[in-house]
Amino acid sequence: MEPSKIKDMGEAIRRVRKSKGLRLEDLADENISPATISNIERGIAHVNLAKIQYLLEKLDVNMEEIPDILSEQEEESNEIKFNLLTTDVLIDLGNPKDAMTRLDNMKLEDNHPCAAYVQHLKGKAFLSMKKWNRAERCYGLAISLSHQNQNKDNLEATSYLDLSLCFYQQNEIEKALDFVESGLDAFIDGNGRGSIKYTLIRNKVVYLIRLGRNMEALRAIQDIWEEMDKIEDVETVLAFYVARADLLRKTGMIDEAIQYAVKGLELAKTNKDFQNIFHILIVLGRLYTAKGKWQQAENCFNTGLTSQHLLTSETYLTDAYAGYGILLSHQNRKDEAKKMFEKAIINAEKHDNAPKLTYALRVMGDFWKSSGTKLEAIPYYERALEVAQKFHYKQAEYKLYYRLSQCYQDSDQKEFEKCLLNMYKTQKALRGEENEILEDE
């Protein structure tokens, strides 16, 4: 008998046993043990067929009845799956509490085929409510149950994806990256949810960029670029365009970066994706700043900021304010630049975004240092360093120690030497990761 049929048979037997109110122990005797009955119900392939027939006789079920039982079971399963689908939509619509009530009322056992999906949705609801610990526990259960259920519909990979988001939103980027890698390892081609693979890679790129591991992020994008026509989710496609343009900017390939950004902007405009229109305009503003095309850069920043009321997330406003501030600094519009950097810091604080707060504080420090007032820069660098150390952003730490050493070089030899020592220790901890201390972000 095929493994899939054995599993179906096992589910049918479990259904009959439950309907009769019998425990495993109630059916066990000298010919069949509770463990063997459990293996049959779970569809373990090596179970003796004679044992299955014996169990059916004990349950007073004929083999001819199994198709009808399976049909009834499938109908019930489809109804549960539809209820779970609408519950998933309910969470997306911003009603996680109502969704949780529905899920709690389902009362599915762990060996039910939909049990993993229930735990996944509970994790998603808790994630939406920012109840991190509860979300982590539910995703852990979903991963375990999905693995037992042969990772149907790639639910294991999906749960790893959402688990990574749980840690990302807590600014634990290294852990988020680890879970994305686990999701990619768990993903099985042909098992459904094909788009999850590309979402995992997209998030991997984002996390690598946040950690300052830009060359790794660029390689990940280049590896996937030939598959872009397979990606159905336009938002994911746009995210790759944005990331590629910004990474090329950081490596100094400005003209090539502009080409990707413009293509991305056209695609975002066609799909009326205002979030990515805003994001790409900010990237273009930075690119034109790097080329010294002040008017084009300012047009990009102003156009982007004009559309901020259409954003679904305001986290990228930090990038807009910081980028605009850099442009204004180049034009020697110091007061306007300072206000932009202050806005960048306030926005990062408002959204509790540690990577962007680290960056916003750093560029404010750069502003004061470039203005010739190094003492004003030090508090911003030190505060940024505290955030970077708290969340183990080693690349950011290295950049900040470098800047602090510049501030102390002519005024405090002891602090200067301390910064150099910490630069050495941080670089050693990076274990050979790329050293890009002078890029814009």
UniProtKB/TrEMBL annotation:
Gene Ontology molecular-function annotations: DNA binding
Subcellular location: Cytoplasm
Main location, first listed in the record: cytoplasm
Pfam family name, one: HTH_3
Domain HTH cro/C1-type: 13-66
Membrane-traversing stretches: none
Keyword set includes Transport: no
Domain of life, source organism: Bacteria
Record key words, sorted: Cytoplasm, Repeat, TPR repeat
Gene3D superfamilies in the cross-refs: lambda repressor-like DNA-binding domains, Tetratricopeptide repeat domain
GO CC, alphabetical: cytoplasm
Protein family according to the UniProt entry: Belongs to the Rap family.
Descriptive protein name: Tetratricopeptide repeat-containing protein
Organism the protein comes from: Marininema halotolerans
